[in-house]
Every structure is written in structure tokens, then in C-alpha cells.
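dude i think i finally got it to work??
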Amino acid sequence: MGLFKRKNSPYYFMKFQLNGQRIYESTKTKNKKFAEEIFLNRRNEIINGVMPIREKEIERSYTFDDLSGKYIEWMSGRQKGAKVKGYIIGILVKRIGKLKLNQISINDMEQLQSDYLKNDYKISYINKILTVFKAMYNKALDWEMITEEDLKRVRKAKQLKGENKRLRYLSDEEAERLIDSCDNYLKPIVITALNTGMRKSEILQLTWDRVDLKNRIILLDITKNGERREIPINNTLFKTLIDIVRRIDVPYVFFNQKTLKPYDNHKRSFATALRKSRIIDFHFHDLRHTFASQLVMKGIDLTTVKELLGHKDIKMTLRYSHLSQAHIKKAVEILDDRCKIVAVDYKEEIEKL
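look at this
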């Protein structure tokens, strides 16, 4: 028995043991003193049998259907990837929608993985399904739809190994060729991507009130992971932005001159620019990889790169770590020159003897 706080919840929770099973309840208060009083009263009630924990609090009758509806409603407007997640949730609902949350097992998820592997789906896609599933269970615990034992059970499901983490980036010379090959409207968009590492959606939805040219900062309030991010404006980007003709009646930095709305698609123009610049196997998102890769290769530490990219976990940034090895090696090789000088001086001293 005891009091504790959960991650992402402001309330204190109570933990009890009943018939060999752990039961968790919320005190519905943020005040620790009040929570302690509630806990003591609740414990005495259970000990004295005055108010035993109700069966429904133990068994939980929520289905995955119940959770999916609540989760979709919660993530709408909060997460940039809500549309993609919604599609994945639809896949899960078809398979396990009618199952109770406390009945879903590791076997259910491993069977899903096996079925998708047999149908030649990419490992990265299958792993994305499991990631969404686990994220939903984390929220289910916050919403008291499952117990911690339920969460621990599904967390044992493992991601598939062998995922091919694609990392394609441009050299400085390739980046210059690409910029020179872009149409006039596309060029500032590509320059912004190469100098900020912003996602395509973040660039196309960027408004002037988020751009502080005086302090040279771009402020992103709504990002993929839901966290605020500040991006410095370097000289190249600053010159690009001040050259853009602004319209008082249009809030967007990049917009279609005919519709006065932000561009929703530029695949054809980008593909043309790639063809002209003789660059193959490259996507717009790879401009973000180029930004990060060039920083790492120029000696910027991974923690700084993580902050600039807006990664929630350093593990996501570690994919660029191998790029720094050659440059670290060169840095250490500088010491060779010093050693050569010492060796020459030592040789001269011996000859004098």
C-alpha cells in the first residue's frame, strides 16, 4: 500500500493489494496532504470491509474499441501525425477492437507482426504499428482504463530487428546544384529546409508571426511531438527571408500566388529540380537529414542537433553518430603534428651529444 505519482498526471495515486492482485486508484487531488488523508481513509475502509474495492475496478471492462475512440479524440489537434496514427489505429481496431484491454496479450501483437511479415510489409511499418499500440496503452493507464500490470504485459512485445534506417543526405556541392535547379517559388523552401532541418509540414505552414527577424529566431509552437521549438536563423536563411515579398492579407511565408494559400504539394517541381541537378534516390525529407548530417560532420555535438531537430529522445539522433567518427579521427590526428615536432627536437638533442 502506498501513494505515488504517475508520469503525465498531476494527481496522486493509491496502491493496494487485494487477494494477491495490485489495485490502483486515483485520489483525484494534487495536494499531497489531502491525498494522504484520502489514502488512510480508503485503506481503513478496505481493511474493515466497509467499502471493498468493486469488482469492476479490478476486472476492467473496457475494450480496445473504447480506447481507440478516446485516443483519437485526444490526439486530434495535439499531434501533427494524427492522420497517420488514425489509419494505424483503424488497422488495430479491425484485429483487436472487440477484445478487452486486460485480455490483449503479447501473442496478439506478435501474430499481427507475423501476418504483416508474410505479406511483405516493411519492418519499419510493422514497428510503427507496435509503437502506436504501446502509446495508446500508456494513455489508457493515465485514464485508468487498465492497471500497471496490463501495461507491463504489453510492453514485453518487442520491435522487429533488421529495420533499414534510411539516411540519405547531400554533400555541399550537391546542395548547391539542387538549389540552383529549383523554380523561383521552390528555392526559398529548399533553402529553409537545408538551414533549419524543419519538417515539410512545418515549413509549408510557417507564418510570419512565428518568424522573428530582429532576433533571428523561428518559433514553432505546434510540432510533431507537441513540444515548442526555437530555431536560429543563420545568415543564408536571413537573406532568403528578407528577399521574400510579403502580403499583408496573407499570413504564410510560402504561399501560392494564385490561391493565396500555402502550398500543399510540390512533388512535381521538386522531382524536376532533382532531375536537373542529377541527384537520385532523394526525397524532400532527406533535406532534414542533410541539415543534421552536415552539422554532425562539422563537429556539432549530438545533443545540440537533437534540440534543433526537435527529437524527443536522443536515440533518434544517434542515427547520425557514425558520421562524426571520421571527423573525430581527424581531430585526434592533429596531435600527430605535435608528436612529429617533439620527435624532431629529441633527435636534434641526441645528435648534439
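The domain at 172-329 is CATH 1.10.443.10 (hpI Integrase; Chain A).
im so relieved honestly
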